[in-house]
Design a protein that fits this description.
The chain folds into 2 domains: 1-63, Orthogonal Bundle (Arc Repressor Mutant, subunit A); 69-197, Four Helix Bundle (Hemerythrin (Met), subunit A) (Up-down Bundle), CATH 1.20.120. With 201 residues, it is mainly α. A two-stranded antiparallel ribbon has the order 1-2. 73% of the residues lie in helices and 4% in strands. Keywords: DNA-binding, Transcription, Transcription regulation.
């Protein structure tokens, strides 16, 4: 039940159902989710640790601002780790990996065309997970799992706008660079992808 409360509240924050600044009352959330207060309180505590919720004891608990310090810090960590993963992945990348990334980018483009942001985020994750898997560094993968959710709201905003088509093009450039085993270009493109998650807003 704790995991269910956490997953559902986090998703509502990420997709904007619970907007920045929204008050989070454990009793109200428990009623809405059909759960008891205990798992909701635990979920809010975890979300506060992750930076998606701001909380001050005896004062307030609310959805954090999209552009909080935690988000800016997370973007830097995520960018650097993806650069590292791509650098490690280039010499290991095989035709099957390239084909899987192209298929994911096709799904991403189709989702953008259909206005299905959730499907676009899923396809984007699948594409970027391939270099991370090829890098073979468990600490990198675990750290990305920890910090990427903080950036989901930015991804939702980007993927629901015309800027999403820039992502399709950058994905293509990244895949082309991996296919050619061009480390410099691959690292440059992946850096731009994560930097522009904030800069293009």
């Amino acid at each position: 039940m704790r995991d269910e409360a956490y997953d559902r509240i986090r998703q509502a924050i990420v997709d904007g159902t619970l907007p920045p600044g929204a008050a989070l009352r454990d009793g109200d959330l428990a009623d809405q989710l059909g759960l008891s207060k205990a798992p909701v309180r635990e979920a809010l505590r975890r979300l506060a640790e992750e930076g998606l919720v701001d909380s001050k004891p005896q004062s307030y608990t609310r959805v954090s601002d999209v552009m909080s310090r935690d988000v800016l810090d997370a973007r830097e960590i995520v960018r650097v780790l993806h650069e590292f993963a791509v650098r490690q992945a280039v010499p290991k990348c095989r035709p099957g990996d390239v084909a899987a990334m192209r298929a994911a980018n096709d799904r991403f483009a189709a989702a953008i065309e259909a206005g299905d942001v959730a499907a676009a985020v899923k396809a984007d994750d699948e594409l970027h997970d391939i270099p991370v898997r090829l890098a073979g560094n468990a600490a990198v993968a675990a750290t990305l799992d920890r910090y990427t959710p903080l950036l989901r709201r930015l991804e939702h905003a980007r993927f629901s706008s015309a800027l999403a088509w820039n992502s399709v093009e950058r994905h293509t450039r990244l895949i082309d660079a991996l296919e050619k085993h061009d480390t410099g270009e691959a690292v440059s493109v992946i850096s731009t992808i994560w930097t522009d998650l904030l800069e293009d807003r």
